[in-house]
Amino acid sequence: MKIGFCGTMSVGKTTLVNALKELPEFKGYKFATERSEYLRDLGIPLNTDSTIKGQLIFLAERTSELLQENIITDRTVVDVIAFTKSAKSISWTQGKQFQVLAENLINDYDYLFYVSPKGVELEDNGVRTIDKEYRKEIDKSIKSIIGDKLGKHPKYTEISGSTEERIEKIKQTIFH
Q1: What is the dihedral of CA 7, 37, 22, 5, to 10 degrees?
Q2: CA triplet 131, 132, 136: central angle to 5 degrees?
């Protein structure tokens, strides 16, 4: 089963994935979490400075995750599309071509969870930007992609609340 969490930066996706790692229901799963620091250290520009080459690397990572049998990841193809659309150095044409290609992978997820930023403060992890307007822009883009593609995904769920409330919603959705 392929379980992905999408959402703007600093909403608790990594926290959720790390919490799920501790639960017996998810024994036998692989867990993919925050890799931005590693990629930044390789010289790949992040946030608004990202390039088409950088976004292709992010997409390749998400694609490699989708080749796994049982994986839970804190970033999805949806996130990569949203960040690509918001990158200053990527032209509209490149962004659109990228989106068309990447959208082909969305239905490979068995479960997609949109993690709402509602009530979650933006935290500085030293890698991601702490620009509140950029955070809103990414969230708006993700919701637009969801509206266009994910709203029709049979196993798409929006989650919010405390980590415990989110985990309960995840378990109810998957194991009903």
Answers
A1: 20
A2: 120
Pair type for strands 30-32 and 111-115: unpaired
What tens digit of pLDDT does each residue of 106-146 get? 989 999 999 988 877 767 766 666 778 888 999 999 998 88
Query: Are 114 and 73 a contacting pair, CB within 8 Å?
Result: no
What does the angle CA 84 – CA 85 – CA 90 come to, to the nearest 5 degrees? 70
**pTM given for the model:** 0.88
Instruction: Summarize pLDDT for 18-73 with one digit per residue, the tens.
Output: 999 999 999 999 999 877 777 777 777 666 677 888 888 889 999 999 999 999 99
Which fold does the domain 2-175 belong to in CATH? Rossmann fold (3.40.50)
- Tell me the residue type at 144: S
Q: Where are the domains of the chain?
A: 2-175
* Measured distance CA(107)–CA(160) in Å, rounded: 23
What ranges make up the beta strands (E) of 48-90?
Answer: 71-73
User: Do the Cβ atoms of 73 and 64 come closer than 8 Å?
Assistant: no
Confirm if 103 and 68 have CB atoms less than 8 A apart. no
